[in-house]
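Write out this protein's structure.
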Amino acid sequence: MNRRDLLKSIAALPILTTAVFGKNSVTKNKIIKPKRLKSGDTVGLIAPAGYADDAEFQRAVQNLEGLDFKVKLGKNVRQRYLYLGGTDKERVEDIHWAFQDSEVKAVWCLRGGYGITRLLPDLNFSLIKKNPKIVIGYSDITALLVAIHQNTGLVTFHGPGGSSTYSDYTKNHVLNVLTNPSAPYKIELSENNKAREDQAYKTQTITKGKARGKLVGGNLTLLSVMNGTKFQLKDTKGKILFIEDVNEPPYKVDRMITQLRQAIDMRQLAGVACGIFTENNRRPAATETQPTPQTNEPPETTTIDVIKDRLGDLGIPVIYGLSFGHIREQFTLPIGIEAEFDTESATVTFLESGVI
């Protein structure tokens, strides 16, 4: 091969690599931080997952106005299709509208429920990347947050939905993260959560230590169902995984963690921070019409027992019971920023802000 042919071959390598292995194998998205919110800013309220009834909708508007924001409604926010907040087309349209509308400074999801995973293949990630702004929610919204972050590099926010209950703890943390960021920013357990007698609210160290890395995660059910798709968690080495869930009996939590372990190498995580797994901490009792699930699981088994069993052998710091999840008092987690948690003090510290 002469010199001219060699240079042509070298020049063609990036094109060939992209064509054969895909764009993400050549370049990774750089982290993009959205602009912080200010008092009086306009936020776009959309319902990209489940349908919200009138009471939920009104509460969402009042909550956001109570945070001193103006609310601009998505065109389809009051639509309903089956149990969803509109058809797939209508919900995708509202997501794109919220990112494209220059008046809208943040995209606030009204509620979770179900339906985001149906939309992911139709999202215009190029449009979102060109119009970076805060997007916030939790539960089913996990799928949207993870997909946007992984496909654009945009920091997204696992925090209260529009219709959530905004306790002082919840309100203070969401405003501090979105409007008045500081770094380092240390978050302690909610005193009200600590005072709860429910065992699901009791913080426990599974494996002691400190973990430092970029935050990734969300609702365990959503992280589980995204496995095997092009939207599943990727590039998790050295990151802090945070997880939470609600109304899932222990054997189902076991199933989902097991699936996650087989989809990603969890031993290469920096650590795992578990929120509060609420409401169904034990398997359901048998009835005449609904026998106990045949899981070979003793009746006294709890979700925390399962978390200890499935995460306690990873050789990395693991803690259960931090103040996030489907609970009244929750703090907001920016996906994609550097953070640290300490099992001894049960604190999370953001080492950088999630907004600029």
